Amino acid sequence: MSVSPSYSDDGVLDDTPALLEGLRNGERGAQERFFDRHVADVERVLFRMLGPDSEFEDLVHEAFIQSVVHIHTFRGDNAKTLRAWVRAVATRTAGKRIRRRQVRRILSLQPPESFVDIPNSVDPSVQAALQQTYALLERIPAADRIPFLLRFLHGMSLNEVAETCEVSLSTAKRRIQRGRERFLALAHDDPLLKIWLGTEEP
User: Fold this and answer.
1) What is the CATH code of the structural domain delimited by 118-202?
2) pLDDT for 123-146, tens place per residue?
């Protein structure tokens, strides 16, 4: 079955329909092209939401496995909508990881310091700030944390956050604001992060 070519808004040939047909037919070449085309975006979403993570590569592959397995649920037909859909899958993958972290922490299956792996090459002051930042972020419920991170760290528009999280625009705004308020409240009470926020002299 042939697929009619489509074009992006700027007139560039968009081979997404052919790529989707290949994915739905289980073609290995299509899966490889799909991975190469979207891996940077998936990695960016996961890192922005989770920070350094010992299971990062596994999570990237998990996001792609979920994307391929559920590609039949995708209803778009162009690169823009496919990219948004893949980011939504990556977001849900990160959300599952966040919830697993919380459960493991509650059950004391791992010491707290094992949840974030900051590279040793990072400047010690930056390392400490990152460590503490991600520790505080984990205290924010995932429902508020994810939209907050997508907006302020990933740089998504409000509409993109709502689409990625599959909620209404008003709900996205409410969760972003709630996540922001919770993070700032926690950070302002932290001696180290007060300096980074500019509320205390170094």
Assistant:
1) 1.10.10.10
2) 676 677 777 888 888 889 989 998
Reported pTM: 0.58
**Who's near 138: CB < 8 A, 6+ residues apart?**
98, 101, 102, 105, 115, 145
Q: Does the domain spanning 1-117 belong to CATH 2.60.40.1120?
A: no
How far separated are the first and last CA of the chain, in Å rounded? 66
